[in-house]
Amino acid sequence: MSTQRLCSLLCVLSVCVLALSVNAQVEVSESQPQSNSLTSITGSVQLPKGQSRTGDFPVKIVLNGGQYQTFAKNDGSFSIHNVPSGTYLLEVFHSLYHFEPVRVDISKANKIIATLSTLMDERGARLQYPLLLLPSRPYEFFEKREEMSIVGLVKNPMVLMVGFSLLMMFALPKMQQNMDPEQLKEMQQMTGGDMDPASMLKNLLSGGAAAAPAVEQADPPARPARSGRRRD
């Protein structure tokens, strides 16, 4: 009789231990987040006033180069559903405006941290969540015409040439007064005797020094008369 009581007592104890172990496993599983849980990334895109978000200029939101993508609604809001935990690069594409890329980190507990980033391994300023994305700059499709500047005008070769010529025109008479007579005579021979600064400037701008005087061509020598007999 004592043996039967002992066996029944052991059975009751084993059932209690099994029940306690099952309850402990359930509590542990409930306290730990699921590693394969999915979440949604939400936010809105805000464009400058007067710009339409639909029609010819839709706003496209892309994760990891197209792994997940969606379009913003008329009010600028967007949602990307069924995204697992991990690190993603969120990009916004618009025809008129450029948006900086955003790094999105999703933990296993579905906690989302968004930061400005240019590369996946770099983090910038932390952004609020849900996301509020603003354009950084508009696209420039045409080059602006360069405005006239004094610096660019001075760098022009033609302006430099004219300025140097004018400087020489005013400085040459003073240089002639201090020159040696023999050197002055040689310069007059080189310039053909024309030492007028205005004439020299005119010759310089017209393509060089004054044209050399034409050489008179001598008459060709007379051909000797042929000697011969006249036939009857």
Describe, in plain words, how this protein is organized in 3D:
With 232 residues, the protein is α+β, with helices and mostly antiparallel strands. It is 32% helix and 22% strand. It is built from 5 helices and 11 strands. It has helices at residues 2-31, 150-154, 157-177, 181-190, 197-205; strands at 38-45, 60-63, 68-71, 77-84, 86-93, 97-98, 102-106, 112-116, 126-127, 131-133, 137-138. It has a 6-stranded antiparallel beta sheet with strand order 3-2-5-7-8-9, with no helix packed on it. A 3-stranded mixed beta sheet has the order 4-1-10, with no helix packed on it. Strands 6-11 form a two-stranded antiparallel ribbon. The longest helix is centred in the first third of the chain and has 30 residues, at 2-31. 7% of the residues are buried.
Q: Topology, pairings included?
A:
Blueprint: H1 2-31, E1 38-45, E2 60-63, E3 68-71, E4 77-84, E5 86-93, E6 97-98, E7 102-106, E8 112-116, E9 126-127, E10 131-133, E11 137-138, H2 150-154, H3 157-177, H4 181-190, H5 197-205
Parallel strand pairs: 1-10
Antiparallel strand pairs: 1-4, 2-3, 2-5, 5-7, 6-11, 7-8, 8-9
Helix pairs in contact: 3-5
